[in-house]
Amino acid sequence: MILPIYIYGHPVLRKVARDIDPDNYSNLKELIDNMFETMYSADGIGLAGPQVGLEERIFVVDLSPLESEEHPEFKDFKKVFINAHISERGGELESTEEGCLSIPGIHEKVVREDEIRIQYIDENLQLRDEAYAGFMARVIQHEYDHIEGILFVDKISPLRKRMVKSKLANMEKGKVACSYKIRTVR
After folding, report:
1. What is the DSSP code string of 29-50?
2. Contacts of 89 (CB under 8 A, 6+ apart)
């Protein structure tokens, strides 16, 4: 089932999500399937619980649509992150343009570390402790920020933030058009 994606200005996007008990989450598989279906219908590569109105620490990522000769490692990179916690960030700082399904029509450069270590539970309820670098680390950090109540526009330069201020204000007022199902504050 395709879920509505919550748009900038909705309070759920600013809440720090809570860990969930996967053993007592009766519809976890259905939720995961719905999150992937919702993400695909909006042409995304990542989607976090708060973006579909949940206050739980869960996000999904699928980089396989970006697989190419240059990036064969994206081919099978489809993952579910439950109760994720980044324990280390490092490497070089890189500035790369990002967008977000919850902030449609805005793309801005964001500076992030290019290496992370993250602990999480996967869709098979297995505890994982993994390191990622490059674009994979960037996408995971972007989705991880969602479960921490942080949006990519919080990380852009003050000048760029002023330049997108009116677009963000319109989103807060419910004035936004998307090709996918959304939920605004109004």
Report:
1. HHHHHHHHHHHHHTT-SEEEGG
2. 113, 115, 116, 141
Let me know: does 58 contact 38? Beta carbons within 8 Å. no
Position 143, amino acid: E
Tens of pLDDT, residue by residue over 49-73, are 999 999 999 999 999 999 888 888 8
Please provide the CATH number assigned to the domain covering 5-178: 3.90.45.10
Largest CA distance in the chain: 46
For 92, half-sphere exposure in the C-beta direction (CA atoms, 13 angstrom radius) is 6
Catalytic residues: 143
Q: Which helix H or strand E contains 162, and what residues bound it?
A: helix 158-172
139/136 Cα distance (integer angstroms): 5
Q: Give the pLDDT confidence of 117-165 residue by residue, as tens digits.
A: 999 999 999 999 999 999 999 999 999 999 999 999 999 999 999 999 9
Burial 76-112 (b: 16+ CB within 10 A, else e): ebebbbbbbebeeeeeeeeeeebebbbbbebebebeb
Dist. CA 4–CA 11, nearest whole Å? 15
| Global pTM value | 0.96
Residue 23: band (very low, low, confident or very high) from pLDDT cuts 50, 70, 90: confident
